[in-house]
């Protein structure tokens, strides 16, 4: 459904995306995972025709986005990290969505549906300027869903969501995929994205690090090293070694743990009342 082929984008001497190829199928949630500056937003902007590639191509349904027929509304989009750009902060959520729906010729009857899906019905008359980042993200996702599109391209939709918001997003994205849609979601947080996605594409410095199913297994499973900080370095090291992990103590007193998932490390620490100050799977650098 979405095909990125040998995509390259250079800005002067910065190569933001470097010969990237991957595909995104319908009926599943695909995560585009990478650290800050990896080239996720650039890839999505190229896919959406918002900037032109230096070489290579990006297509949706076999067609470049900018070649789609006028008025086509097959792609729902969320771009930018703060969910909703709101130049007129005086608008309420309903007014904001009304504006977007009118601009795209979408019947206003759809507003109630997307407000409900986004869990914003009770906040529909609140000014967007008073919204938290998480609520803005929900509103941005509601916007992306307005036209009921078969394809969703969402740049960092999980930013600012709390645990409840993450659960909501996971359920929603899976439902949208189960309905046969193509759902592409970018993010920086391996665990959150791996939990959310059926497939993962991991990029770093504009290049593919690991593709699709292998990447998901790497994050969910045991292969990514996990960075851990605790005041009880010795106790936790020995507990994790007992679990079969390889534990390395770094100069800054953090631990690099390989062979156990972040989730398992968290559980071991919790069960043994060891405080954790950081628990972060490391995205592989090339
Ligand atoms: N318009 C631009 N001009 C120059 N350099 C750019 C431009 N857009 C992106 N870059 C550079 O390209 C690289 C990739 O940026 P991009 O925003 O795509 O990464 P990202 O993975 O989305 O990061 P983040 O998660 O922080 O948004 C970075 O080095 C960035 O500085």
Automatic annotation (TrEMBL):
Domain spans labelled ABC transporter: 2-230
Transmembrane segments: none
MF-aspect GO terms: ATP binding
UniProt keyword annotation of Iron-sulfur present: no
Pfam families tied to this protein: ABC_tran
Keywords: ATP-binding, Nucleotide-binding, Transport
InterPro entries in the cross-refs: AAA+_ATPase (IPR003593), ABC_transporter-like_ATP-bd (IPR003439), ABC_transporter-like_CS (IPR017871), P-loop_NTPase (IPR027417)
SMART domains associated with the record: AAA
UniProt xrefs under Gene3D superfamilies: P-loop containing nucleotide triphosphate hydrolases (3.40.50.300)
Family: Belongs to the ABC transporter superfamily.
Name under which the protein is recorded: ABC-2 type transport system ATP-binding protein
């Amino acid at each position: 459904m979405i095909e990125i082929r040998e995509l390259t984008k250079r800005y002067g001497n910065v190569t933001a995306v470097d010969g990237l190829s991957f595909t995104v199928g319908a009926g599943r949630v695909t995560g585009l995972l990478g650290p800050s500056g990896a080239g996720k937003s650039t890839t999505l902007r190229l896919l959406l025709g918002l900037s032109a590639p230096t070489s290579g191509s990006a297509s949706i349904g076999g067609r470049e986005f900018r070649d789609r027929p006028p008025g086509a509304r097959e792609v729902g989009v969320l771009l930018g990290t703060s969910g909703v750009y709101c130049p007129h902060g005086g608008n309420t959520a309903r007014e904001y969505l009304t504006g977007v729906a009118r601009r795209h010729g979408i019947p206003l009857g759809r507003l109630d549906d997307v407000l409900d899906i986004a869990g914003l019905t009770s906040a529909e008359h609140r000014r967007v300027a008073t919204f938290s980042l998480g609520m803005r993200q929900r509103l941005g996702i509601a916007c992306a869903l307005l036209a009921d599109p078969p394809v969703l391209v969402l740049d960092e939709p999980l930013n600012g969501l709390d645990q409840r918001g993450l659960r909501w997003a996971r359920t929603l994205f899976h439902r949208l995929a189960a309905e046969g849609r193509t759902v592409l979601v970018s993010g920086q947080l391996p665990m959150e994205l791996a939990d959310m996605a059926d497939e993962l594409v991991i990029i770093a410095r504009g290049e593919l690090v690991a593709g699709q199913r292998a990447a998901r297994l790497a994050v969910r499973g045991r292969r990514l090293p996990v960075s851990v900080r605790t005041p009880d370095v010795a106790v936790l090291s020995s507990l994790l070694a007992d679990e079969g992990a390889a534990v390395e103590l770094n100069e800054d007193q953090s631990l690099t743990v390989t062979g156990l998932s972040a989730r398992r490390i968290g559980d071991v620490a919790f069960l043994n009342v060891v405080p954790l100050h950081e628990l972060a799977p490391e995205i592989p650098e090339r």
